[in-house]
Design goal:
Layout: H1 2-7, H2 16-19, E1 22-25, E2 28-31, H3 51-62, H4 66-85, E3 90-92, E4 96-103, E5 106-109, E6 116-119, E7 122-129, H5 131-144, H6 148-153, H7 162-171
Antiparallel strand pairs: 1-2, 3-4, 4-7, 5-6
Helix pairs in contact: 3-4
Length: 172
């Protein structure tokens, strides 16, 4: 039965993981990322900056030793996590606000059977992006997209050919 099911799959459908910006290391997919320095602008949406790269970038930008930047970042994140876990808001002007959010109890549906499930109330972390940060991201995206004037300057491709003209004549 398994072989017959495999034969009926559509040949052009790819697994979701094959369409994502991933590369495979061994048997597991890994997100691609670029090496980030202090002078590298973060403009690509699909690029990923990890903790070590963030520490290196901050150390290069400030001139502080890497160990000191790492200790400062760890302490900052620990304080933010602790404050939000205790129910406080943490507001960083120009960057955003971390806050605990309450999710009420609700009834959901089991995806396979459709049976109703009762989900308990939970508490989650919310983040609201600051206006300055939001504007910087919006400006970087609009700078990358081509303008309408640039699109008008590109010449249109001529699509008429003998076969196309013959097909149109045959339809009439």
């Amino acid at each position: 039965m398994a072989n017959s099911r495999r034969a009926h799959r559509h040949p052009t459908r790819l697994p979701v993981i094959a369409r994502c910006p991933l590369r495979h290391v061994g048997h597991r997919p890994v997100l691609r990322h670029a090496t980030i320095t202090a002078s590298t602008p973060m403009t690509a949406v699909e690029e990923l900056m990890n903790r070590a790269q963030l520490i290196d970038a901050v150390a290069a930008a400030t001139g502080l030793p890497r160990a000191q930047v790492e200790a400062t970042l760890s302490a900052t994140l620990t304080q933010v996590r602790g404050a939000v876990a205790s129910g406080d808001k943490v507001q960083l002007p120009g960057f955003g606000t971390f806050e605990p959010r309450e999710r009420g109890a609700r009834t959901a549906r089991h995806p396979s059977t459709g049976a109703p499930l009762q989900l308990a109330a939970t508490r989650a972390v919310g983040f609201k992006v600051g206006a300055t940060f939001k504007q910087e991201v919006a400006d970087s995206v609009t700078a990358k997209t081509p303008t309408k004037a640039a699109a008008e300057k590109t010449p249109a491709k001529a699509t008429t050919s003998k076969s196309t003209a013959a097909k149109k004549a045959a339809k009439k």
